[in-house]
From TrEMBL:
Name assigned to this protein: Cytochrome P450
Lineage top rank: taxon: Bacteria
Organism expressing this protein natively: Saccharothrix ecbatanensis
Keywords: Heme, Iron, Metal-binding, Monooxygenase, Oxidoreductase
Gene3D superfamilies: Cytochrome P450 (1.10.630.10)
GO molecular function: heme binding; iron ion binding; monooxygenase activity; oxidoreductase activity, acting on paired donors, with incorporation or reduction of molecular oxygen
């Protein structure tokens, strides 16, 4: 089948819904030959079952060979060596398993409960500040972004006062309108900054994740791995949750019946968070894997070394997952969604992200029962790997 130019379909249109073209592809043929964002060919996977097959099979759909697929920017051994260490997403088992096992204990639901009171405190401090300032407020800058950023900074041991610098770096890193070379250069800057923090932690390990990893000699992590881990956690730890918080608030404001249910009935919050994760699916540009052997997928035979891109928004709006998938319904069980991915790379920070959202959404809605958006159409982050809002002016 000829490749069709579907690059724009990786991207979200303005608003909450994925590009309608994705639904058409999903119904016609869940696995389609397309042009990837890198310029070479790829298989776009849009059905929930096929996405689970790909992400659930790290042996046939690997993560460590992205630099070898057609269209990928040529990287020198040095560039690869600088980029990979510590980055869980760049490895397959067993290398991946080693890193994941080291970090897992710090991200269990039980461990998250220990920091729950601190998250409440951080959320309340930000709500107090918004209330003190009075309306209007800028919900992304004053609430959605700083809360997860502060939480991950404290958890990791990164000075919060550096956040303007690292946030602007990560926004550039996630900007798909920039070239890969420009994005790698930004990543090198981020790593240089984190290398200083790791050096400091080696001398004086704090009571945080970096300090813990430095102290644990049996972990055997070298400095480049520590920098890579810190980079991934800092990036993944705040960009994603921040965008879920901002976009989630707007989604609720646009669905006042759902908002009322969540505000007035506290025990609905777990289901509401899962449904918002499913419906919004902020990791929207496609999760890539590379085939390691010939493999059958959705009725197609894929050769080895082919790029496969899973569209999480398409899979999460698959009618085979939930009934009426395009509707937002916080009373349903959306638990089978793939907004956090699936399989061995399933989001390490999911328990933390869930806890932040379960605390932040209801606290905001109860503090400001008359909250409303100031503008009809706020600014969306359409060019970003993680979808969301650039700003959300609100009043009450
Ligand atoms: C992996 C989404 C929050 C750390 C992933 C993946 C997705 C995802 C889709 C899988 C990518 C793949 O398979 O290629 C999200 C969403 C979040 C969120 C939607 C918020 C709502 C967080 C937080 C942290 C975090 C708060 C850290 C504290 C990670 C890490 C991985 C990952 C380290 C790689 C895991 C591995 O390779 O084993 N996330 N994430 N994420 N996420 Fe998250």
């Amino acid at each position: 089948m000829a490749a069709i130019p579907t690059t724009p379909l990786y991207m979200r249109r303005i608003g909450f819904d994925p590009d309608p073209g994705l639904a058409v592809l999903r119904e016609e043929d869940g696995v389609r030959r397309v042009d990837s964002l890198l310029g070479g060919p790829a298989w776009l996977v849009t059905r929930i079952a096929d996405v689970r097959q790909v992400l659930g099979d790290p042996v046939r759909f690997g993560n460590s060979r992205h630099h070898l697929v057609p269209g990928a920017p040529a990287m020198t051994e040095e560039e690869l060596a600088a980029m990979l260490p510590g980055n869980l997403l760049g490895f397959d088992p067993p290398e991946h398993t080693r890193l994941r096992r080291l970090l897992m204990p710090e991200f269990t639901v039980r461990r998250m409960r220990r920091i729950e009171p601190r998250i409440h405190e951080i959320v309340n401090d930000h709500l107090d500040a918004i209330e003190r300032e009075g309306p209007p407020a800028e919900l992304v800058a004053d609430f959605a972004l700083p809360i997860p950023a502060l939480v991950i900074c404290e958890l990791l041991g990164v000075p919060f006062e550096d956040r303007d610098d690292f946030q602007s770096r990560y926004t550039r890193f996630f900007d798909v309108s920039l070239s890969m070379a420009e994005r790698y250069a930004v990543q090198a800057e981020a790593k240089a900054y984190l290398a200083e923090l790791v050096a400091r932690a080696r001398v004086e390990p704090g009571d945080d994740l970096l300090g813990m990893l430095v102290r644990d000699e049996s972990a055997g992590l070298d400095d480049r791995e520590l920098v890579g881990i810190a980079d991934l956690l800092l990036l993944a730890g705040h960009e994603t949750t921040a965008n879920m918080l901002g976009l989630g608030v707007l989604a609720l404001l646009r669905h006042p019946d759902q908002l009322r249910l969540l505000r007035d009935e506290a025990d609905r919050v777990d289901a509401a968070v899962e449904e918002l994760l499913r419906w919004l699916t902020v990791v929207h540009t496609g999760v890539p894997r590379v085939t390691t052997a010939e493999v059958e997928l959705g009725g197609h035979t894929l050769g080895p070394g082919e790029l496969v891109v899973c569209s999480l928004p398409a899979a999460n709006r698959d009618p085979r997952l939930v009934r009426d998938p395009d509707g937002l319904d916080i009373t349903r069980d959306a638990g089978g969604h793939v907004a956090f991915g699936h399989g061995v790379h399933h989001c390490l920070g999911a328990p933390l992200a869930r806890m932040e959202m379960r605390i932040a959404f209801p606290a905001l809605l109860r503090r400001f029962p008359t909250l409303r958006a100031v503008e009809r159409e706020p600014e969306y982050r359409a060019q970003q790997v993680v979808y969301g809002l650039a700003s959300l002016p609100v009043t009450w």
